[in-house]
């Protein structure tokens, strides 16, 4: 049975798998991520999804997942500029 991930569940799983590309997992990212989550099957991952979604209710974990996901929403140039400006985008007032 396939395990389809949508929305925040996909972000949280990708965060735990430390995926370099959003929506794609290398074999190593997938297997290491499942081990880290304590899941040795897709069924166990499916059962763990409510717990993973609930992590977003913990402020520090939310910030970590948000920062991880944010980098995928920026173009490469924006990421570099944002980092170079200490987290601010070009043109933003200090």
What does it look like?
This protein has a single domain, classed as Recoverin, domain 1 (Orthogonal Bundle), CATH 1.10.238. The N and C termini lie far apart (51 Å). The longest helix is centred in the last third of the chain and has 15 residues, at 59-73. The model is unreliable at 88-94 (pLDDT under 50). Helix 1 crosses helix 2 and helix 1 packs across helix 3. The chain is 62% helix and 0% strand. It is an all-alpha fold and 94 residues long. The protein has helices at 8-17, 27-37, 42-54, 59-73, 76-84.
Short structural description:
The chain is mostly helical. It is 62% helix and 0% strand. It is globular.
Notable traits:
5 helices; 94 residues; 62% helix; Recoverin, domain 1; disordered C terminus; mainly alpha
């Amino acid at each position: 049975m396939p395990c389809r991930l949508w929305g925040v569940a996909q972000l949280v799983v990708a965060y735990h798998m430390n995926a370099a590309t959003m929506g794609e997992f290398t074999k190593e990212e997938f297997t290491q991520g499942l081990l880290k989550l304590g899941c040795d099957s897709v069924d166990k991952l499916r059962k763990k999804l409510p717990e993973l979604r609930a992590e977003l209710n913990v402020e520090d974990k939310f910030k970590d997942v948000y920062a991880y996901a944010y980098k995928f929403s920026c173009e490469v140039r924006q990421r570099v500029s944002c980092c170079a400006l200490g987290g601010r985008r070009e043109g933003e007032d200090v």
